[in-house]
Amino acid sequence: MDSKKILAKNIVLIGFMGTGKTVVGQLLSKRLNWNFVDTDDLIEKKVQLTIPEIFRKYGEQYFRDLESIVIKEIMQNSNQVIATGGGIVLRKENMKFMKENGVVICLLASPKVIFERTRSKTPIRPLIDLTNSEEERLQKIYSLLNFRSPYYAQADYMIHTDNLTLEEIVTKIICTIKIC
Ligand code: S3P
Asked: Which pTM was predicted?
């Protein structure tokens, strides 16, 4: 398996909030000895504001503009594992850049698993307001997932993560891109 080449310039992880893009990306980058890049981190560094502050002060569209700028910059480089924000798929141009310069892998999880994972107070996710009731949050997850599913389906590969450990997800990705 190790003799096989990775047939990609970059690996881009997309998927809904709470599907594990960051933790999976960090471990995957270690395994491959590639750089790890997180679009949300770069956005925060760029404007010296946290994601919730950007949403609060300037609104979601401004955040989306920053996201588009940052992903274009990142995709100029190679040998990177890139964890993206859950909404990056919403702009056609983002998907185009990601697919042209890398292999795009979508991590999937069921709404209940997403609900459990997004209960945590960090990172703060402006689109899932923890001051709302559990029912309202679950409803929000269902409606966003429903709307975004066709966008996530544009990935090169989709991986269901509900019944896999972190190690298994990473192995599966490596196998997929090395065509094991
Ligand atoms: C968002 C997901 C977040 C972050 C922002 C918006 C979304 O990232 O980019 O809060 O629109 O789904 P994670 O997917 O890493 O939580």
From this structure: 0.95
